Amino acid sequence: MGTQAKSFENGAVPAMEVAGLTVKFPMRGGVFGKVQSYFTAVDNVSFTLEQGKILSVVGESGCGKSTLVKSLVGLVPMAAGEYRLFGEKVRNGKVLLGEDSAASKGAQKACRVSDLVQMIFQDPFSSLNPRQTVEEILTVPLVARGVTAAAASARARELLERVSIPVAALQKFPHEFSGGQRQRLCIARSLMVNPKILLCDEVTSALDVSVQAQILHLLDDLRNELGISILFISHDMQVVRALSDDVLVMYFGHVVEHGAADQVLVNPQHEYTQKLLASVPTIRR
Ligand SMILES: Nc1ncnc2c1ncn2[C@@H]1O[C@H](COP(=O)(O)OP(=O)(O)OP(=O)(O)O)[C@@H](O)[C@H]1O
Ligand SMILES: [Mg+2]
Q: pLDDT under 50 in the chain at which residues?
């Protein structure tokens, strides 16, 4: 990933910039199931995720948090908006390297968004293929990118160690692990392609409280050791407070507040954020 190393490690540019992002879902009806109208799940959302930082997205159920992150990895289409990764424009799942630099015009190269951005889901039980061994789960995406099987296997071993799972796990199947171990396997899988950004959608909600802390520490360590930037979705305001550098508050698809975690969580300006925090009395210092 030589081009990535060259283009994506300039600390001056934000890891991710989103401006005016809008996602609409078609509402179908009638006998023939025709599209009758559109529901706007994410409405004109703008934010910046700085390199090596954790930005949390909070808001009540159904406000569009998952839809927002899904649109960032192409799982749902964007209806409008500008999306940049490390200063480079993203279009149709491709990062257009050097499109803006006059020198490289004509010699444009692109890499996939998935080379830079990986998503980890809420449910570690359904996000691992039950018929694949851990080794297959970890190495297949890398081999598909042209990496040799031996190199992919070496990286799988390295990452298992990083997420504190014994290397003997390589020949096992997902059902042989606990929930917390499975989520660590999901994290290892997401790290295989050496991403620069992780999108974590309620990654601890399905786990026991004692295991939640291990996963959160692991994410924080990854940020500190690898400089990975994290977009973190959680309903747990105490976790958000402990982990985040910045916070984005969503309400019915809109951003109502965006700023430093200390500012937003201690001195919220918007009425909705105040209500959200008031419902969690233990959050105040
Ligand atoms: N594929 C879809 N088709 C139509 N509507 C959808 C689709 N996915 C989500 N929605 C709607 O978009 C809105 C936002 O959903 P989303 O899953 O993003 O919410 P959320 O903030 O992640 O909620 P939660 O905290 O419960 O996970 C909801 O009203 C939901 O019903
Ligand atoms: Mg969600």
A: 1-3, 5-6, 106, 283-284
Q: Is 41 in the pocket of ligand 1 (CB under 6 A)?
A: yes
**Nearest CA residue ID for atom 26, ligand 1:** 61
- The pLDDT value recorded for residue 74 is 94
- Measured by CA distance, the residue closest to atom 12 of ligand 1 is 41
Phi-psi region of 197 (alpha: psi -120 to 50; beta: other; left: phi over 0): beta
Pick the CATH number of 2-283 from 3.90.1210.10, 3.40.50.300, 3.40.470.10, 3.40.50.1820: 3.40.50.300
Ligand 1, from 35, 66, 119: best to mutate by most atoms within 8 Å of Cβ? 66
The HSE-up count of residue 127 (CA atoms within 13 Å, CB side) is 21
